[in-house]
Amino acid sequence: MAWHEPYEDPDSYLSARLAEVQRQLARALEECAPGPIGVLSLCAGQGRDLLGVLSDHPRAGDVSARLVELDAHNAAFARALAARLGLVGVQVLEADAGNSDAFEGAVPADIVMVCGVFGNISENDIARTISFLPTLCAEGARVIWTRHRREPDATSAMRAAFERVGFVEEEWSAPSGFSYGVGTHRLASAPGHFVAGRRLFAFLDEPGSAT
């Protein structure tokens, strides 16, 4: 079964996580200042989280987004969905989000999405990516991220790592009955200087519902 197929089951782990990501994303969009909103999504998959929110969100017209996805099938799905929804401000880039080259021209962003990534990469890559996130952010930007909470649960250490590099936690959802966590962290320090050509992470395995 392909990793994204459980999205078709409304009772699945992925569907529950998707709903929570969308809720936090909708709130983040509402709290952005008036005017243009830049969104960057790493390893965007089929783009269901962002595109599902933009389909009927009042700030959709303010959004310019780049979805970075390496898999050609998923990128095509996201591109077709964005077109069907009339979201002309959405760009789907078929590229490796583990290399910062994929973000050039789309940063600094007001919202950075790192969903389905941290459960598929090494501890060193997690630390490197979190440390790099301020360079992708505009002043006061929000990062929305996910990670499974199975043992050994790394989410407490990751939340602390966000704080060490200048973020404050706005929301953390870890519902009983599911092993996922979804967080929103806001950059409270000065944004960093973006550097292209930086290797951030590589997936250990194919992505799946354990992310």
Model description:
With 211 residues, the chain is an alpha/beta fold. It has a single domain (5-187), classed as Vaccinia Virus protein VP39 (Rossmann fold). It is 28% helix and 24% strand. The protein has helices spanning 13-31, 48-54, 72-84, 123-132, 155-164; strands at residues 37-42, 63-69, 90-94, 109-114, 137-148, 167-173, 180-187. A seven-stranded mixed sheet has the order 3-2-1-4-5-7-6, with helices on both faces. Strand 6 (167-173) and strand 7 form a beta hairpin. Helix 1 (13-31) crosses helix 2 (48-54). The two termini are 16 Å apart. The mean pLDDT is 93.
Quick recap:
With 211 residues, this protein is α/β, with parallel strands linked by helices. Helices cover 28% and strands 24% of the residues.
List the helices and strands and how they pair.
Elements: H1 13-31, E1 37-42, H2 48-54, E2 63-69, H3 72-84, E3 90-94, E4 109-114, H4 123-132, E5 137-148, H5 155-164, E6 167-173, E7 180-187
Parallel strand pairs: 1-2, 1-4, 2-3, 4-5
Antiparallel strand pairs: 5-7, 6-7
Helix pairs in contact: 1-2
Number of strands: 7
The main sheet orders its strands as 3-2-1-4-5-7-6
The span between the termini is 16 Å
The CATH superfamily is Vaccinia Virus protein VP39
Uncertain stretches of 5 or more adjacent residues: none
Judging from the principal axes of the Cα atoms, what is the shape?
A: globular
Helix content: 25-40%
Q: Helical segment tally?
A: 5
CATH topology: Rossmann fold
Mean pLDDT: 93
CATH class wording:
Alpha Beta
Strand content: 15-25%
Number of domains: 1
Q: How would you spell out the order of helices and strands? A: HEHEHEEHEHEE
Q: State the CATH architecture.
A: 3-Layer(aba) Sandwich
| Main β-sheet description | 7 strands, mixed
> Radius of gyration over alpha carbons?
16 Å
The SS-based structural class is: alpha/beta
